[in-house]
């Protein structure tokens, strides 16, 4: 039986992205959101324009044609995402000894939709439903890195002395996250806490969530601020496993 055709998967992902964005997107925005080269993204959108499925506005940005509005509805909601991720999140907590969080992007913030306690029987507070400043946590950096809409600079509030609040510096950080495929945060959201996160993708490659660990800074990073051995591979493997369950192909 023939396998899936990558070019069609990418075209469908572009359509869904444009339909759900709520605003026009440039070629660079589309490429960043889907992990595509600018030339590839441009070729896809121009083909879709020629086919009448995408329109280009006066500013040169692209939008889904009006008839495709239904494509903007999320294919997977937070409850479904949590159900698909729960086993892998539990396993990640057991492997790393740290708490595990699963988040989605909501109004520019990282909304925690699932929380697995650190498996050491210590007193902990459930964080499901918590909304975190996306620019100041690893989960949020992952979500912003692949979001089609740029972060609102008015929301770059300093949570600690280490929080990145300069828009240009944040853009560089997000570009690095896209390049390496994971994010690290050290004491940007709260003193003494660090986190590592990786993207969760669905069919077509759209990032629908972020999975990560966080804990005391001494347990997550070494004295030079580098992730402790094994943490990054463990987080990325769990995120990829969830993604495969959602139909994503290996990248």
TrEMBL record:
InterPro entries: GAF-like_dom_sf (IPR029016), HTH_MetabolicPath_Reg (IPR050707), Tscrpt_reg_IclR_C (IPR014757), Tscrpt_reg_IclR_N (IPR005471), WH-like_DNA-bd_sf (IPR036388), WH_DNA-bd_sf (IPR036390). It comes from the Bacteria. Keywords: DNA-binding, Transcription, Transcription regulation. Pfam families: HTH_IclR, IclR_C. PROSITE patterns: HTH_ICLR (PS51077), ICLR_ED (PS51078). SMART domains: HTH_ICLR (SM00346). Residues 67-248 form the IclR-ED domain. SUPFAM superfamilies: GAF domain-like, Winged helix' DNA-binding domain. Residues 5-66 form the HTH iclR-type domain. The keyword Transcription regulation applies. This is IclR family transcriptional regulator. It comes from Kineococcus mangrovi.
